[in-house]
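Priority: low. Protein: FAD:protein FMN transferase. Input follows.
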Amino acid sequence: MKKLLLFVGLVLATFSTQAQARKLIFQQPKMGSMFTVQVWTADSVNAAQAATQAFAAVDSLNLIFSDYLPDSELSRLSQTAGSGKAVRVSPALWDILWTSRMAWEKSSKTFDVTVGQLTQLWRQSRKSKQLPSPTVRQKALATTGTQYLQFDAKNHTILLKRPGTKLDLGAIGKGYAAQRMLEIMQKAGFAESLCDAAGNMAIGKNPEAGWTIGIELPNQQGELLASWLVLQQMAISTSGDAYQAVRIGGKNYSHIVSPKTGLGVTYQRQVTVLSKDAAQADWLSTACYLLPVPQALKLAESEQSEILILDNQPSGLKTFTSPGFKKFFKEE
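Result:
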């Protein structure tokens, strides 16, 4: 669904208080991307065990959330679309879909997990470099709409009313997984951890001066924003199209699909969100990418989150930020 453009480092003010501690890094490929756990500790054995548990939790979530695996719980639920059958779902799937329902309402129906048919169609278009025909696109659009998901809290069931609806958690699933990983690390006693799910970061306490996060400038191929962020006990996610844009018919399209048109958006923008947890940061960064700038700023404020928007306009790069975002920049 999106390309996340974040780089993480660790700045230490002094080594005197934690002479025996060091930063450990654990990595495994998960959900089609690289996942990383960074932890500041002197206990390498137990840290490794905790990281293994965190990665195992991601594997379990993938069996629930994946829209690529035909036997995942999500895929099985999608297969019931239009059948009139309400399906009892696991706590994790209920939680993420209910969160997605709330996100859809809060984002003026911009964040929509029922766009699976559209994203699948757009993947084919990006590969073939041909736009889908209006007829095919309208058929896919007719399968979308979070309002057609019926939730029964008493029985913990979900009914997909609209035939052909295909669910896609690509704009929230990795953030959800990152937050779950951090919770596991913290429960194991490693509060000073950072869990990175392909750029969706759940950030724990900092060991000294802080975890520093660099944001890549849009369309600059590795060049970072001059100021770095210093973060702790929060989450960060960035949505942008620096590496996954495609040119079709002389026009650039993002890999992020508009649920209103069924096509990738044509403007060039990068949105970074700071939130209380990684699932929230994940969906907010996508919703704010799709919304007009004034609405994006308002949505972030309503969610008690901070936002940075880098917007490539004909006149050059324009920057928009929420009032509190700048306080997280590292002081020179």
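Residues 1-5, 10-19 have pLDDT under 50 and may be disordered. The longest helix spans residues 44-65.
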